[in-house]
Amino acid sequence: PQLTLRYLWNRDYKQSNSSYSFWLARKWIRNEPYLHLNCDILFSATFLGRLIEEPHRSAVVVRRDVALADKMENVLIQDGRIVRMSIQHFPEAEGKAFGLAKLAPPETRAMLKQMDVHLERGDRNQNCYGLIRAVVGDGTFAAFDATGDAVYEVNTLVDLDKVEKKLAGSGPL
């Protein structure tokens, strides 16, 4: 697909977080489809193409083959839609949301409204998935199932070692 890439440098990232970077980009993403890609996620170009072509206007990548725990984005899915997302594990959770999402303008604007609330309190230190978590309950976000796909999150050197071992000999993502 034809994509337009824009780069934005959040010069205050050390004192803020990804939601503030998202907010800084608001004039470009408020009225246009937007791909949110966390920098610690590894995936193939083919996978990204499938996400872009996903028929739902907004979708969050989810894996169901991950051991769920606190401090990760646990999700509850109904009829292919995410209806609950929490960083606290809950018994009904079915998967983990990963740092890739396709966002349509209505969902982006809802997230920006949430960020405005944080900024009014002087809080620039939220992550973008916290904004998604705040607006996901209305069922507008599809769960884009990546179970079994080569989609990996690399937060630590241990994670990197595991991914390198999985990919050894399998060629490029």
Could you characterize what this model shows?
It is a single chain. Helices cover 32% and strands 21% of the residues. With 173 residues, it is an alpha+beta fold. The strands form 2 sheets. Strands 1, 3, 4, 5, 6 and 7 form a 6-stranded mixed β-sheet that branches. It has a two-stranded antiparallel ribbon with strand order 2-8. The model has no long low-confidence stretch (mean pLDDT 91).
Low-confidence stretches: none
Calculate the terminal CA-CA distance, rounded to whole Å: 19 Å
Give the biggest sheet.
6 strands, mixed
Summed up, the helix count is 6
**What's the rounded overall pLDDT mean?**
91
What structural class do the secondary elements suggest?
Answer: alpha+beta
Strand content: 15-25%
Total strand count, please? 8
| Radius of gyration from CA coordinates | 16 Å
Share of helix, binned: 25-40%
Global shape: globular
Write the H/E string, N to C.
Answer: HHEEHEEEEHHEEH
